[in-house]
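hiii, so i know i said id send this last week but things got crazy w the move. better late than never?? heres the sequnce for the chain we talked about at the cafe, plus the structure i predicted for it. fair warning i was half asleep when i ran it
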Amino acid sequence: MKKTFFRSSVLLPILLIILFSFLFKNSNAQWTQTNGPTGGPVNSIVSLNSKLFAGTKSGIFFSTNSGDNWTNINVGLTNTYVTSLIVLDSNIFAGTYGGGVFLSTNNGALWTPINIDLTHKDVTCLSQIGSTIYAGLYNKGVYSSTNYGISWTLLQNGLPPNLTVNKISVNGSNMYICCGSGIYISTNNGGNWILSNNGIFGNSVECITFNSSNIYVGTYNQGVFKSTNNGALWFTVYFGITNSRITSLISRENNIIAGTKSGAFHTVNNGFSWSEIPEFINSEVSCFSLIGTNIIGSIPGLGLLLSTNSGYNWSQLNSYKLNNIDINCLANIGSNILAGSNYGIYFSSDTGDNWIQKNNGLLDLAINCFAINGQKIFAGTNNGIFTSTNNGDNWISSNIGLTNLALQVNGIIVNNSKIYSATYDGVYISTNNGDSWSGHSNGIPQQFARSIGANNNVLFAGTNTWGIYISTNDGINWTPVSGSSSDMVFCFAYSDSMKIYAGTYGQVLRSTNNGLSWQSFSSGLPTNGIFVYSLTLSNNKLFAGTDRGIYISSNSGLSWISKNQGFEFVSSGNILPLLVLNNNIFTGLYNQSVWKRSISDIVGIQNISGYIPDKFSLSQNYPNPFNPSTKISFSLAQNSFVRLKVYDDAGREVSRLVNESLTAGTYQYEFNASGLPSGAYFYKLETEKFSETKKMILVK
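okay and structure toks below
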């Protein structure tokens, strides 16, 4: 019987408020997601009312056209690392890693946590028998709910303490737990459990499927095992499977399909022999899901594949707007954008409207960094450096001189016609455009370089926990500098005024003497352990990409304000790369692909004083009358949520200039009214403790 938890008369107004709030936000300046890259890993797919729902690390997506187009639906989902989805009656349940279990009774429009009695929130999987829901947890065993998640009961009779559950599955009247120590079986709905490992030898079991009277399990590193007697005895059946790390199993009619870390395989003779599926060659499989009579498979980096004939043939789904790729680095060659991810390199020639993958020749798809030297692109990976001279169409290895730990490349820069790379084995230099490399790390602790920078003839190496080291003799010798002795240093940036900036764990550092000494400039940044992953400059504005979003400084780092409008409904504030191109700034959001915002929009408000005023105030705009731009200044005596709006003479809001939390200080906003007609306008400043309105005249 269907059970719901919200009256429709209450729910509908809530949804309308959320919808209009979201639409209104989109009508104002904010970050917007580009159209990709798409096709990150999907952990679970279910169907309800002819819609598909996909659970990913960046939340839940739904599709109304069989997977060709997707929309993110995370409203109410406070943790968006979704490990599992199940459907019970007309309700959808989402298990998350860190947030417990969530319920939607309205096709995913709104999610509500249902975690009473579920004291631990790291949910690894969900399953059901009839109207009973089962939740497997990391290190905490199995819980069940018989009332749609209102309350939960721990099922531990026969299970070891601190059990991590990989998968819960049901076949007939039996329940099966896949876990690190093998298989547990229950014949009484989880009341008692018995370890059934005879023949598995204690291997970690990751997944399970059933076919006729046979049971098949996939293990972490020993391939597939089969049982013909309900798990009493197991034997190996993976002849033909070339990768023993099994990630997913599914059965449809007489065809059993095994996904691995490198390819997918199927058998039609109960596992005696397996054949590789051509569409999955060398590709990792994150999940297989049975949707009606169809099977959908997920290949991280390539997207979703569909089979309508029990897995014998597969076709690629468009996966449009399934934007769940983690972006590690960004670069541009001319007006083209390169995005490096854990699944290779993506290329856009139209500022992010379309993306294509360019991995031909890459032997490692985990891209950590880029550098550009003329028409040559350098890509640093976990397996060395690759180069391309044709916009990424083809890549070749450029690792002569790089061995062992030096193949783990963290950063690459070009300076004075030389190429420098930061590696796990210190700093390496190429004097022949990457054809060969030599190590230069004398003085760097443990020869570990996390980042690399240069300003004229001075080199900077950022280390893991030893701060910044500099070299004035092209890397022959390195010495530590004052002011950064215990910092983990992620990045460097340089201004025309000889100021050098470093992003670290906890702060932004600045040097005005070419790196000899450094000072912290972090007013306005979060104080509780922020990671500053990237820094870039544009028109004397300094941008910082952090694990709490994006911040901007208009006064050389003296003070910072957040610029995160548009990120409210995304899974994480982790900003790794930043790229300024023409009038846009691009960023990669963790598991959320590439976003962009116009520079003129993001620099609209500036903190123009480092002093804290003793009172709130709103100044008269200048010039006034104006055409088409004018400056509006205001002062905040304390940290406040600020709204600065412009109204026409009829009282209608025509522009929202500021709608965010700001620290105490004096600010200036340059308002451009080029889209408005001549006339009288009013601008209003509002905080929790202050409100004032002033008049201005636009004359064209």
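btw The chain has a mean pLDDT of 90. thought thatd interest u
miss u guys!!
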